[in-house]
């Protein structure tokens, strides 16, 4: 019995130079490696290898219509895959390397697999800043497709232990670079006729983007992010939002100066701290309680992304909705 469990174990290695070199050779051989970025952990594969990219979808149980973010080492590498427009140039200059993903038209000679685009004619690109991600991209010398390293629809992983809990046995190596500093996924920006569109609020707040692009257009029609499914980031526990306090049977995930919080995202009401704590605290509480009440979070700054994640986490999950399937 013990042997079977051991054979499923995924190695978790401290992300030193040796582990990064091993990760790069695994990736070059078409295998999957989870690695830290400044936002959350990614489940990486060689973006130019269709079989390796297909293995990401299988490992996550991710629907094939949901495209993947491609991580590149810099702007020049990004230009080889996609056609930039003027606002995209300005955003890349301001925020790369960093927590910004740009969705741009694929170049006809793009080298990344069509699978990363999931049938769309666009590709999502990001230049990460985390030293481990930077070193890994440098060592492997090719773009890496990497969605968040969680099972599809589940709580995002912000530590190596969380990745192991999500993807044990389904990834060849996990590089441990500690807790991810921002704790929320990147902000995803697409374009409609050269007008920037917010596809997913994330670790860079709307106002920071708008300072570069002017007001962001609303996502509509074809300019949508297929991954913005209603239920996502879902704990097993019931989740009640904008709660003044915990009711019987609930534990409170607080924000600001609230009494009797089980955990507090930020006792001082700091949204950056709350973003960094969000997924790990949700995960902690999910392991221990049946029902979670969450304090109101203001919609300013990073609050837009935090509220987006909480709303999706509270939406009925597929496994629960399946119980009362409508005709
Ligand atoms: O911070 C992050 O963005 C993390 C780290 C690992 O980089 N990655 C991440 O990937 O959150 P994922 O796959 O969990 O989310 C990618 C989002 C999805 O909502 C997906 O639908 C959207 O980006 N996306 C990817 N390619 C797209 C495309 N071509 N058009 C529209 N949306 C796209
Ligand atoms: Mg994700």
In words, what does this structure look like?
- This protein is of the alpha/beta class and 327 residues long.
- The protein has helices at 2-8, 17-28, 50-60, 75-79, 86-95, 114-117, 131-140, 160-167, 206-213, 271-288, 303-314, 318-321; strands at 12-14, 33-36, 41-46, 69-71, 100-105, 122-126, 144-145, 173-176, 187-192, 195-200, 238-240, 251-254, 263-264, 291-294.
- The strands form two sheets. A ten-stranded mixed beta sheet has the order 1-8-2-3-7-4-6-5-9-10, sandwiched between helices. Strands 11-14-12-13 form a four-stranded parallel beta sheet, with helices on one face.
- Strand 9 and strand 10 form a beta hairpin.
- It is globular.
- The N and C termini lie far apart (43 Å).
- Mean pLDDT is 92; it is low at 1-7 and 318-327.
- Bound molecules: threonylcarbamoyladenylate (TXA) and magnesium ion.
- Threonylcarbamoyladenylate binds next to strand 5, strand 6, strand 9 and strand 10.
